[in-house]
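Forgive a beginner's question, but would it be possible to get any protein sequence you like and the tokens describing how it folds?
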Amino acid sequence: MTKYKVWVPIFVILVSVVIIVGIIFNSEKKENKDFNIVTTFYPVELIVDNMIKNTSNVKSINISAGVGGCVHDYELTPADMKTLQGANLVIINGQGMEHFVEHISLEKGTVIDSSINIQNKDISSHIWMDCDNYISQIKTIGNALCENDIDNAPIYTQNMNEYINKIEELKIQLKDIQSNVDVAIMHDSLKYYERLGSYKVSAQLLTGHEGNYSANEIRNFIEQIKNSQTKILLVDNETYQDAKQLVDAVQKETDVKVFQINLIVDVSDNLDEYIIKMQNNIKTLKEAIDYGK
């Protein structure tokens, strides 16, 4: 009876230790199971969101989500640095879009440059505006996810293929727009459509940022439009907002008709946002070309 009384508390202690260790182990296992992704910019976040749908343990956060628009002037905050330290993968647009990338220092994660495999790198840092580039970004991000999170690789692969198929349909629609119509442009990303044969750029004003153009640049731009008798001015929605007075002045001086192309940088929860906005851009391009004929 005495021996029994001695062993009971020992047994209870041992069971308690086993339970506590089990709880700690399962807690650590659960923590380690989460796969954390940090993106720097909405177009990249949109790709990631399409890649990780139907996963249960993958989380993604866009550190510039509260800014909206492009991130040319974005500066990392202390909160951003803390978020980055907890990332398994940090995915950037690349091509100089994120000047702050040199300040990213990670303890365990890997930085993935989504632009690493694109072919036409010299046109614009807004590479996603070209469907071929966007598909390349999707493949780079999808493959990186498969390599770094093997457990979810089948889901990533399926999502990647489905998303690429949707973008391929947009490519077909864009390639159907072929013309020699002269256009004036006010954003470097609009040169992508010249590459596709949609139109011929006869005048361009690209060097300013957020409407900061020199008087000489503006004067030359207006002269180019007049000399080429261009009837169309293509402007992205960001430039139109930042430099509306300038756009209106050019329109008044040259009698061009202004058409806006969406840069697809405004944050949305819709996974098909790229497709919707690009379809609208295709419609706008067709209207512009018809007007210029």
Q: What stands out?
A: The CA atoms of residues 173 and 209 lie 31 Å apart.
